[in-house]
Amino acid sequence: MGLSRIFPLVSKLSKNFIRNRTLPTENPSGFLCNRTASFHRAIHDGLEKPQVLHDAGDKTPLLKNPKVSEDAEKICKILSTSSSNSPIESFLDGASVEASPTLVVEVLKKLSNAGVLALSFFRWAEKQKGFKHTTESYNALIEALGKIKQFKMMWELVNEMKIKGMLSKETFALISRRYARVKKVKEAIDAFEKMAKFGMKVEGSDFNRLIDTLSKSRQVERAQEVFDKMKKRRFEPDIKSYTILLEGWGQEQNFLRLNEVYREMKDEGFDADVVTYAILINAHCKAKKYDEAIDLFREMEAKNIKATPHIFCILINGLGSEKRLSEALEFFELNKASGFKPEAPTYNALVGSYCWSMRMQDAFRVVDEMRKCGIGPNARTYDIILHHLVKARRTEQAYSIFQQMSRDPGCEPTVSTYEIMVRMFCNEERMDMALQVWDQMKTRGVLPGMHMFATLINSLCHGNKLDDACKYFQEMLDAGIRPPAQLFSNLKQSLLDGGRKDVVISLGLKIDRLRKTPLVGLR
């Protein structure tokens, strides 16, 4: 059913369900438009086009083995709803699921927000008859453990991989990224240096990956330092090296440093290509310098450099978010006239542009056009629409559309979708509905991250539902997620106000154990 056909149903919702409540005016999930564009990877590695703006939510899902997907969802449901006091082996052994490399990797990726469960599942899988882990399954576990800062366990896995001959450069890149994300820059660089110690030849592409990792972790200053220290002495910079730094300074909106890098790039004999222009245009859009972004587009055209669909996405997103809708539409039509095949990200950018101007019927019309073109919609399309409906305090419409997602093939709600809805009901102080959505999420085997836990727990504290707040705080700890200091402070104060000092002491001890006790192999 197209969204334009869903829309009329909204007015028929029971008035007893949600009563004309309003949402705060802040953006509850300010990530739906103007995504960071990582242009350089694919095009400078020799692919036909860069994989920018194609984040996980933007891609039309690839065809998967239905049995593998079904089994992966089944396992995640078991793990997310099983008792924390019981060993998961008993639940998994009764699931009648045969472990395969493809299945194990898919489950581990779904468990990326729950490192403790991921490790337990990993150890269960390796005990299954005839099963052997792959480099990809090790890397997926390392990613999950990195998110909960279990760095010691990550290095234990590296040693296992070395013994089995499974180490890859991707493994070290993952570890560097996890360190960089928590501002452990020295450790990130050390992880990079350890590649050579483990017998791997370090090449220019590896240096590029390191400065890219630092740059994307909001450490572009350190990335620049590494670049300046290592260039010429340890590696020869290429155009990708410079575009990485251009993108990093652009994300920081530091045009002084961006221009310095750009001048150095040209002095080294590298001419601006389509990737360079894409990064410059994106930087100007991020800084709301839309006229300058359009000037750069025209300059690029004058040099006979053909714009990619991703550049059109940037401009459509940027202009649309500024409610310069007519110009956004012009670039959409220009994209079509350029002969590119219809792509979901471009249409999603158009959907978002209409939403920014609250022309929702036009947004729904575009969704129907996506269906006719066979390019969607996808979960990302729904997330964009939901974000704007929530922002406009159109709660009933948002919930109605959310309910339709599961019935729309390829549009099943993701953790981002659930976060939008849980946050909406928390802001509405409708904790019954927030918990209902949360339970639906867990039933589907979708696991929440730290920010989503924090939203729910803080709201439960605000509503004086302290038993529930403690329950979900414990669930967070069981997943191995270290709570932010402010979250525990809020819960602690609420409990103390309620005369529950004993609970505060108990939770404090559990947090200390989580922080100080590294995970063991759980064999």
From TrEMBL:
Gene3D superfamilies: Tetratricopeptide repeat domain. It comes from the Eukaryota. InterPro entries: PPR_rpt, TPR-like_helical_dom_sf. Keywords: Repeat. Signal peptide: none annotated. PPR repeats lie at residues 134-168, 203-237, 238-272, 273-307, 308-342, 343-377, 378-413, 414-448, 449-483. GO terms for molecular function: mRNA binding. PROSITE patterns: PPR (PS51375). Pfam families: PPR (PF01535), PPR_1 (PF12854), PPR_2 (PF13041). Belongs to the PPR family. P subfamily. This is Pentacotripeptide-repeat region of PRORP domain-containing protein. It comes from Malus domestica.
